[in-house]
Write a structure and sequence with these properties.
Blueprint lengths: L8 H5 L33 E4 L12 E4 L5 E9 L3 H14 L13 H8 L3 H13 L3 E5 L5 E7 H8 L3 E6 L2 E6 L3 E4 L6 E5 L7 E2 L28 H7 L3 H5 L8 E6 L5 H10 L8 E4 L13 H14 L4 E6 L3 H10 L5 E4 L1 E4 L5 H16 L3 E5 L19 E2 L7 E8 L24 E3 L3 H4 L8 E7 L14 E4 L2 E4 L7 E5 L2 E5 L5 H18 L12 H10 L4 E2 L8 E3 L11 E3 L15 E2 L1 H9 L10 E7 L2 E3 L3 E9 L9 E6 L2 E7 L1 E3 L2 E9 L6 E10 L3 E11 L8 E7 L12 E7 L6 E2 L8 E2 L2 E5 L2 E2 L2 E4 L3 E5 L8 E9 L2 E9 L5 E2 L12 E2 L4 E7 L4 E2 L19 E2 L3 E5 L2 E2 L2 E5 L8 E6 L7 E9 L2 E2 L3 E5 L2
Parallel strand pairs: 11-13, 11-14, 12-13, 14-16, 16-18, 18-22, 30-37, 49-59
Antiparallel strand pairs: 1-8, 2-6, 3-5, 3-9, 4-5, 6-7, 10-15, 15-17, 18-19, 20-21, 23-24, 25-28, 26-27, 29-31, 31-35, 32-33, 32-36, 34-35, 36-37, 38-39, 39-45, 40-44, 41-42, 42-43, 42-46, 44-45, 46-47, 48-50, 50-56, 51-52, 53-54, 53-57, 55-56, 57-58, 57-59
Amino acid sequence: MNGKAMNNLKQNLLRPLTTLTLILFATSIEVSAQQTRIIRPVDITQRFTLPDHIHPRARAEFDQGRVSPSFVLTHITIALAPSAAQKADLDQLLKAQQDPASAQYHHWLTPEEYAQHFGGSDADLAQITGWLQSQGLTVTGVARARNWISVDGTAAQVERAFQTEIHNYVENGATHFANSTSLSLPVALQGIIGGIHGLNDFRMKPAKRAPHDQANLTLQTPSYTSSRGNHYLAPDDLATIYNINPLYGAGWDGSGQKLVVAGQTQINLSDIEQFRSSFNLPANDPQVVLVPNTKDPGISSDDLPEADLDLEWSGGVARNASIVYVYSTDVMDAVQYAIDQNLAPVISTSYGLCEAETLVSDALLFQTWARQGNAQGMTWFGASGDSGGADCDDSAHAGLSVDVPAAIPEVTGVGGTEFSEGTGQFWNATNDSNQASVLSYIPETSWNDSATDGTPSASGGGASMYFSKPSWQTGAGVPSDNARHVPDVALNASADHDGYLVYTGGKLEVYGGTSVPTPTFAGLAALLNQFLVASGSQSTAGLANINPKFYSLAQNASGVFHDITTGNNIVTVTCSSRVRTCTSGPVGYSAGAGYDQVTGLGSVDVSALFSAWSGKSITPIRQTTMTLVASPQNITADGILYLTATVTGASGATPAGTVTFMEGQVTLGTVALVGSGGTATATLSVSGSQLAQGSAIVTAEYSGDVSTTASVAVTVSPSASSQMPTIASLVNGASFKPGYAPGMVLTVFGSQLAASPQNASTVPLPASMSGVAATVNGISAPLFYASPGQLNIQLPFEVPANSTAVLAINNNGQTASQTFPVAAAAPGIFTDQNGAPVPNTSGSRGQIITLYVTGAGALSPAVSTGDAPASGTPVANLPKPIQAVSITVGGLPANIDFYGVPSGLVGVVQINYQIPAGAGLGAQPVVVTVGGVPSASALLTVTN
């Protein structure tokens, strides 16, 4: 493809995508029907009250009056309630997915498959979205599972839509906002909308504790002793105590696995890197994701230590797993996003709120997220809390309570133990090279440092008042009632004896609390996923709700759990005079044989757990190694580089298959292995112009019997002919006219834009290729195609509509930029060289045909910039433009049979439309309108 204007969808603009299984549909896509439950018009004058939506902490004595009408509320979630039939079907599916005799065993759903069975219909979503927009609210997202809609709006708009008032409240010196009165909605939506989340900012609290003498600690290398002689835990100490070392020795380290840590602050990667460097862990930065369409909270001093310890200790266990840190101003928005996007098989949240201070509607909403996560194979760990049996830890809600989300049956609640060394000798006098000094397992008791700390500091646990007992929560010690009990499991949580080392804010600190065993268990789950898949015990990663297996193993396998039988989580509460049902004094529970409401089933012997779970012993993972050599390592942009990968097989077997060579996300080529005697090689020649100038990292990946990768650094210098790039014009990639909207295909014309022609070969699209990268407002704009005279890029969805944006092009260190306006919609129709829409340039009256547009703006459900809907996504679940779409032929309205983004396409919307019966014959103008903005016309030939 050259740099001239492109006028044909298949032969030009989308030519790079034909290698990505692009399918141009020539006939109507059949859209499967789903039950529509809204059966009457949405009349705002007929309303019903949505119960349980006034926050317990929005109390009259704290009320400061209404917020300003212009106060903006963001990421309000309108949750759809499943029908009774959907709920029953989901119950059966969750059971079948855990039944080895079922055809559904470990068949985890995608969010789109979940939507097909348990989400709302397109018609219902359209009705609800239309009503929300009619109230002035801005729709910012629709769940991939079609079970929630998110909106932003001013207080005035929110109050009008939900017939409530948003007030300010001052509690303990901090200002919060919340609705002060009940919510009401149109009667037509009764039974469909189950809850609304985000009308207050009473956030969950982190479950972390520092030693009571934290300010006086002296952390002396190498012994890490405080003034009281306590020891502190390094990652290898934990591995010894809980018997993880046999797994590491056999090569099980989380490679190929993913887990999510949810938080509500930005982080400094330098803290994570310092932690891993100090304890000789492999370098492994987390992927950091801000929930789209939410406010960035920046660095929160209250939340940063929590995020750091969660990331450091989950990674300190699953040492080579990919860790995704998802954050927002509200940690539960991060959880919601992680589940909606199906980001990883494991989620860790070290935040919680006692049930007495949690909206019932929120608790039930969080349970629907957990159930969806389980159906997708996701395992969610939640801290059980740090205030013992009286989880609220305040006089207004004194007495027994447990923590949400840990109390949700589909979440694994993690409690705390404390080491009880007695007269035993469990520590070396000095640390080893990894800063560890423990000798063996240390006996444990219940964590309760309340007397020492002078404040409630004990393992959360007890009976839920919101959730009934699940069928699997049985066994010795489980109370004979109908309540869900927490915790389920536990690990050491004492900051005082002995705390965990954490780098945060550039300093080494010590922390405890149930915040630490929670991400630790998440790391263990990632290891378990790796072990079960690689050992053949299960075909796919994902354990879903891990609790039934835990309780089964406790009854049927010996040596898996350390049964904690001593101690308690009893704390002293002081009741407010306003609380009539409260009695001041000690409340909580004592540990005992079997299950108890302090430490659950107890702590774990990890190797014994893995063996009992799988029925297999811990054996070494098969090792296949690979080396990658670049010759020469220093080239110019017009030079040739030879890349040679050498793969050595396990147990003397000669590797077979192919090696794929990549720079970043750009595939340079794939070569078959050739060899014998246990070793095989693959060599690829690459032009220097295909690589980024400066220091480039090339990676080779062998995906044979065991996936193996290797990388090499090369240096690419500019050629003598290197020149400054010049931007001549920016146009819509379909119409080749001005007009720009988020998510569209943007074509850039100019000179010296890239070193050589190159097409994208993967989805997600690469951020750079042929040595060129593009950004818009500093946000990476992935590339479809690059050549010296032309770039095809995707305008990022993150660029706000109705703004002025800056495009920056970096061609191997030489830069150029240009400003341009961005609108909410700027539709352009893809045409051939004669201006006819492709792929169907002609058709007869009444015939259903297809065209493609770009520039339709925001989509629902959202698609990440550079990505496409997954292959196999049901048609009904494909993303659609949020704004209204219409089409005319010869000035007559045409019926739209389907519109949306097909699997494999990036930035392009397909429309199947019917030629009107009254359309004139011959060349007729076709116009697509999105959000009131018309496209330039294409000429369709109507034949008869």
